[in-house]
Design goal:
single chain, 24 helices, Arc Repressor Mutant, subunit A, 8 strands, alpha+beta, about 500 residues, 3 domains
């Protein structure tokens, strides 16, 4: 296929729809409904019918998505006479994906900058950014500063200081730099800093973790406590959990130090955390895996949030009227073709995701029955071959998509993982090995935690061959401390 070919905009739109998660798909379709007058959403039409006291169309989502809607099957206004079959549509998609990859490989080999999918991601994100953001930490601090007794001059200093507080709540500049920037005396800077450090959340405006924890303890009237003494005098030892050294240095018992460290652990190391941008998104599973009436696991598509579209009969009627001008006919015909392609693309998206989910179920049936310990290695190329699509199609189709399983709502990418050999000749997915590692650490004697070497031996006894460096890597990924930092007394 020649590099001189141009990617068809409609086919590129199909790729974007395939890659978009459900909520993003809804936003993209809403935008298309705004610019294409011949498209109608069935849900909106049903609602209007109910308001008029009429019976809504009895078109269930499953019927709409099981096959292309009848509106897309035949259209007398379309000069082609009928739509392309879905198989031909899939061939076009595969050709586009191969061409898309060919372009990327070409630009990568020649070091020519190109517009990649991030441009499209930014466009999609722009559509979703209409939701009003929550109040930031800096806005909250400025609000408190305006309610304080600071005069106009000191208020400007407060604004300067707050502007240098990061999202975690820490001051990222020094007093000397603030003096230089503001032209104020160091004593005035310190006065304003003291005011800001008294704001909510406790610990805000600190220059390091030690000051942050001390501010929180001071706010809680714990200046005379052992916790305060540990933070003030033994921060290095605290970070390394050298409990015996702290006890000796402060002439305290090991038990007293350990109890105080547990209380320190309840303090907030990032006081601005509650004002950080919310990275947790409301996810909608694309498919469900549930037991059917026969007791077997089955894949069901989640139609609730997938738009049901059709071509407006009003515009079809307008096309059939002799008085309609050729310009209007051309415009309507173009919009009908565009709308039909969108409907077909949504259908193809749903079909692809369901097919992939069925293959996941086939390969991961043991996971459905027993959980993460039975997750098996699986690659996108294996699934692509089984489903009969390009590997890139699988990658796009599972990107940002979720699947509801008996063990919770999981990202579809969760099931694609490499594996390790076991003594019976089978393979265990990396995720299963991590689950085993986490379980071993949870059950270990806290006074004698397992070293990485001991964990390797334990895995070997369970029939899993794993290197010490792999154990260390997985332990770090699970945020499990080394054995000497896990030890308690």
């Amino acid at each position: 296929m020649s590099l001189n070919q141009v990617l068809a905009p409609q086919l590129q739109q199909s790729l974007n729809l395939l890659q978009a998660p459900t909520l993003e798909l809804k936003a993209m379709v809403d935008q298309e409904l705004q610019i294409n007058p011949v498209l109608e959403e069935q849900a909106a039409l049903d609602m209007e019918a109910k308001e008029r006291g009429e019976t809504p169309d009895d078109g269930t989502p499953s019927a709409d998505l099981a096959e292309p809607p009848s509106d897309t099957q035949f259209d007398p206004t379309d000069e082609s006479g009928k739509d392309e079959p879905i198989d031909d549509f899939q061939k076009e998609m595969n050709q586009l994906i191969e061409l898309d990859q060919e372009w990327r490989d070409h630009f990568a080999s020649t070091n020519i900058p190109m517009r990649d999918s991030r441009d499209e991601d930014e466009k999609r994100q722009f559509m979703l950014d209409s939701v009003t953001s929550c109040q930031s930490l800096q806005e909250f601090l400025l609000e408190q500063a305006r309610l304080s007794d600071l005069d106009d001059g000191l208020m400007k200093v407060a604004e300067l200081i707050i502007g240098n507080i990061d999202d975690a709540g820490f001051l990222q500049t020094s007093v000397d730099e603030l003096v230089f920037s503001s032209g104020q005396q160091a004593s005035h800077i310190q006065t304003v800093m003291d005011v800001i450090q008294a704001f909510h959340p406790p610990g805000v405006g600190a220059r390091d973790l030690r000051e942050c924890l001390m501010l929180q303890l001071e706010r809680a009237d714990r200046v005379e406590s052992l916790e305060y003494q540990i933070v003030r005098e033994c921060m290095d030892e605290l970070g390394r959990r050298r409990i015996k050294e702290i006890a000796k240095k402060l002439t305290q018992t090991v038990d007293a130090v350990q109890e105080s460290i547990e209380r320190i652990g309840h303090l907030e190391p990032k006081p601005g955390r509650e004002y950080l941008p919310d990275t947790e998104q409301y996810v909608v599973p694309e498919v469900f895996i549930r037991r059917g009436d026969d007791g077997e696991w089955k894949v069901t598509s989640n139609h609730e949030h997938v738009p049901r579209l059709r071509i407006s009969n009003a515009y079809k009627d307008l096309m059939a009227q002799a008085a309609t001008s050729s310009e209007v006919r051309d415009y309507i015909r173009d919009k009908i073709r565009s709308g039909k392609f969108l409907i077909k693309s949504i259908h193809q998206r749903q079909s692809t995701i369901v097919n992939i989910a069925n293959e996941i179920l086939t390969r991961q049936a043991e996971f459905m029955d027993h959980g993460a310990s039975q997750l098996r290695p699986m690659t996108m190329s294996q699934v692509a071959e089984a489903v009969g699509v390009h590997e890139t199609t699988v990658s796009r189709a599972v990107s940002g998509k979720y699947i509801e399983t008996p063990h919770g709502v999981l990202e579809m990418k969760y099931f694609f993982t490499a594996g390790l050999a076991s003594k019976d000749g089978s393979s265990l997915a990396n995720t299963s090995v991590k689950e085993m590692l986490n379980d071993l650490v949870k059950k270990e004697d806290p006074t004698k935690p397992l070293s990485d070497e001991e964990l390797v031996k334990t895995f070997k006894e369970k029939g899993v061959k794993i290197a010490r460096r792999t154990v260390a890597k997985y332990r770090a990924e699970l945020n499990i401390l080394p054995s000497h930092l896990r030890r308690t007394y």
